[in-house]
Structure formats: structure tokens, C-alpha cells
Design a protein that fits this description.
Number of helices: 3
Number of domains: 1
Number of strands: 4
Structural class: alpha+beta
Helix content: 40-55%
Distance between the termini: 8 Å
Shape: globular
Largest sheet: 4 strands, antiparallel
CATH architecture: 2-Layer Sandwich
Radius of gyration: 13 Å
Strand order of the largest sheet: 2-3-1-4
């Protein structure tokens, strides 16, 4: 069953974040992830949620997603994101 990784992000330092963005897609794709949304306009519909940036990635399984984000190549890149953003991420099972 597919799972979806949803990331909410606020960028605090664009330069290191741009370096992260330049490299992360190839890592995600090598691990079977498919970007469904990556930035773009966010339109709040209800409540107080007004995120600056949303990323949506589809994986075939939760295990596949977890392997991606615990891989040595991702862990080497992750400090660029950690230093330049405030982010929250979840995995959601598909229907």
C-alpha cells in the first residue's frame, strides 16, 4: 500500500536550503519516492493552518520511505535542511 510523506516547512536560510534542494530529489528518486508536490502555491481552506511550503512524496511502502531517509546519502545531506528550515514531516497510509 502506498504511503505519502507530507512535509510542512518554513525556510529560514535560503542559501543552504537551495543546496539541499539541488541534491535531495535524486536521493528520493533512487529510493523509489515520487514527488507529487514540491513547493508551489499553498491555499489555506479552513482553520489556522497557513504553511509556507508543502512537500508531498509518494512511496510504495513505509519501509521504503524509512530506508530513504535513514540512508547514508540522505543523512549526509540532512544537516543542510536542519540548519536552514523549521520542518515537520509525517507518513500517511494511502487508501
Amino acid at each position: 500500500m502506498s504511503v505519502y510523506m507530507i512535509v510542512e516547512m518554513r525556510i529560514n536560510d535560503p542559501e543552504p536550503y537551495a543546496k539541499y534542494v539541488d541534491q535531495v530529489a535524486s536521493i528520493v528518486e533512487r529510493h523509489g519516492g515520487r514527488y507529487l508536490a514540491r513547493g508551489g502555491q499553498v491555499v489555506p481552506l479552513s482553520g489556522e493552518w497557513d504553511p509556507e511550503r508543502i512537500i508531498l512524496i509518494e512511496f510504495d511502502s513505509a519501509e521504503q520511505a524509512q530506508r530513504c531517509f535513514s540512508s547514508p546519502e540522505y543523512l549526509a545531506l540532512a544537516p543542510l535542511r536542519e540548519q536552514s528550515t523549521v520542518s515537520k514531516a509525517i507518513l500517511v497510509e494511502g487508501c
